[in-house]
Amino acid sequence: MAEPSTHGVPIELRKVTKAFPGGRAPAVRELDLTIAAGEIVVLVGPSGCGKTTTMRMINRLIEPTSGDILIDGRSSRDIDPDLLRRHIGYVIQQAGLFPHMTVASNIAQVPKLLGWDRRRIAERVDELLTLVGLEPATFRDAFPRRLSGGQQQRVGVARALAADPPVLLMDEPFGALDPISRQRLQDELLRLQDDLSKTIVFVTHDIDEALKLGDHIAIMQRPGHIVQYARPAEILTNPADEYVEQFLGAGSSMRLLSLTKVGDIELDQVPYAAEDADARDVLATVERDGRGYALILDGMRRPQRWVTTAHLKGREGPVGMVGDEVSGVIGRRKTLQDALEELLNADTDVVPVTGRHQAYEGALSLATVQNAIQSIKARERERRMVRLGREEGG
Amino acid sequence: MNLWEYVEDRWDLILFETAQHASMVAQCVLVAAVLGVLVGVATYRRPRMAAFATSSAGVLFTIPSLALLGLMIPLLGLGVAPSVTAIVIYALLPILRNTVVGLRGVDPLLVDAARGIGMSRRRTLARIELPLAWPVILTGIRVSTQLAMGIGAVAAYVSGPGLGEQIFSGLARLGGANAVNATLTGTIGVAVLALLFDACYVLLGRLTAPDGPLRRLAIARSAHG
């Protein structure tokens, strides 16, 4: 069955407060948060900052003391909590699989609650196992304790997705995994999200995980409020205050490299010519440019070869097959970090950057990347000055 | 007359008393199990109530069985009624205590997961908590059964049914004909019965284990129709 999956819906928290009996300060205080449909929003902060409480109020595992939570425009108060939760996927730390049930039975719980027939459930279970990268024949009838931590959490994600809910709540789902499994599951979550476009609320205390996964990040501080709610790049370049800066810790520039795409920075332009261009014209262009080389593109504008003045001198007619073959190109969707890695390993100092259909868009050298970092830093400094000025003025 | 001749001579009576004993113990433990699990389920979430339930059952436990049986005569007279009441009271404690311990021992993470995916309280209890606590509860029932075996024998003191009759009549005329034979027959009968019951529990435990045949069957039925 290839039913189209349900896309995410918006969630809105309005002045949500939670005070636990006996607690001195409320765990969450008048929190406003608007989550766009189909986005991953990460709630991040130290333990006790109210991030888990905030998440658990969305599916009413914790009832808010005051305020309202709207899911797709409907107040969650108006929906029976058990019914509400059947339409909100829930993934917790260490997966929380029921040890006395098989993998299939674990995944089947929500569809069973919703009264699906057996055949539809069985088909859905196999479909989901495939989706999360587990072979159905091998894992269907296995008991959870035979599975590795990573495999268990895959089943946990499958269980949450079983009834195709528009919203997914994930409470430190990868916290207990080893770094390699964690990274792999993060990557797969992003891959799944590309297809599914669910609204995901993700809780973690790991800022790197937040920066990697979040479309938006809410940095929370004790007791129970949001210090900054912004896109990852914005948080890195323009942290709201010292607390956020401290929470980000060192290495913001390096993180920025992994968040910035090659296409987002100003690329170098090198002289280029088509394969059928006259060698004398190309030579003239190269000499005018002064760098002493040019890039030869094929009919589809794909980078083919580098030619230097030495290659071109004395030649007449089309440049044709002279020059050194281009050893590698960098896609514009690559992160600066990956690009840097490729630059360091490349045979030439300059590497062509390609866009759609591998067509030439520009070139990248270590100097280009360095300039980009510097301009990002300058922007960051400028913003900080503006902010300081504003604070002094206000 | 040696023991074997004694048994052969009264085979029908002994068999009858053994069956009576077994039936009494089984029924009493069943009642105690239902009561114990119900009270356990009702109290395990509230630590004070659970503590109160187990400690009050514990206090009853400290009363010597002979004394409890004796105290019941004015209330319930002689025969089956006081015997059954006493056995149920004694059998209650291990089951109640193990139910509370078993349910409280279920990983809170799993209860959270069950509630989080939309199971009601009742369904969470029936599908997650009780099945996971079951091995511990079963152990409680097993202990209760052993206890009920012994107290069932003492119940003959208030003219209760079962093998206790052999023991008490033997003890009453110690030195007389067949006194030792009667006592031995009763004692050995109770011991054999206890072993048989225990074997049943081992089997039941295997059958109902998390990946035992019964659960597998239930899972296979529910997951792939």
Automatic annotation (TrEMBL), chain A:
Superkingdom to which the source organism belongs: Bacteria
Enzyme class: translocase
A GO BP annotation: glycine betaine transport
The ABC transporter domain, residue ranges: 11-248
Keywords: ATP-binding, Nucleotide-binding, Repeat, Transport
Gene Ontology CC terms, in alphabetical order: membrane
Xref: SMART domains: AAA
PROSITE patterns: ABC_TRANSPORTER_1, ABC_TRANSPORTER_2
Name of a matching Pfam family: ABC_tran
Record-listed E.C. numbers: 7.6.2.9
InterPro entries documented for this protein: AAA+_ATPase, ABC_transporter-like_ATP-bd, ABC_transporter-like_CS, CBS_dom_sf, Gly-betaine_transp_ATP-bd, P-loop_NTPase
GO molecular function, one term: ABC-type quaternary ammonium compound transporting activity
Record-linked NCBIfam families: proV (TIGR01186)
Family: Belongs to the ABC transporter superfamily.
Protein name in the entry: ABC-type quaternary amine transporter
Species of the source: Nonomuraea aridisoli
From TrEMBL, chain B:
Topology class, membrane: Multi-pass membrane protein
Transmembrane segments: 20-42, 49-69, 75-96, 132-159, 179-204
Domain named ABC transmembrane type-1: residues: 18-201
Highest taxon in the source lineage: Bacteria
Compartments where found: Cell membrane; Membrane
InterPro entries per UniProt: ABC_transp_perm/SBD, MetI-like, MetI-like_sf
Keyword set, alphabetical order: Membrane, Transmembrane, Transmembrane helix, Transport
GO CC, any one term: plasma membrane
Pfam families: BPD_transp_1 (PF00528)
GO BP annotation list: glycine betaine transport; transmembrane transport
Transmembrane helix among keywords: yes
Family according to the record: Belongs to the binding-protein-dependent transport system permease family.
Protein name, as recorded: ABC transporter permease
Species for this entry: Nonomuraea aridisoli
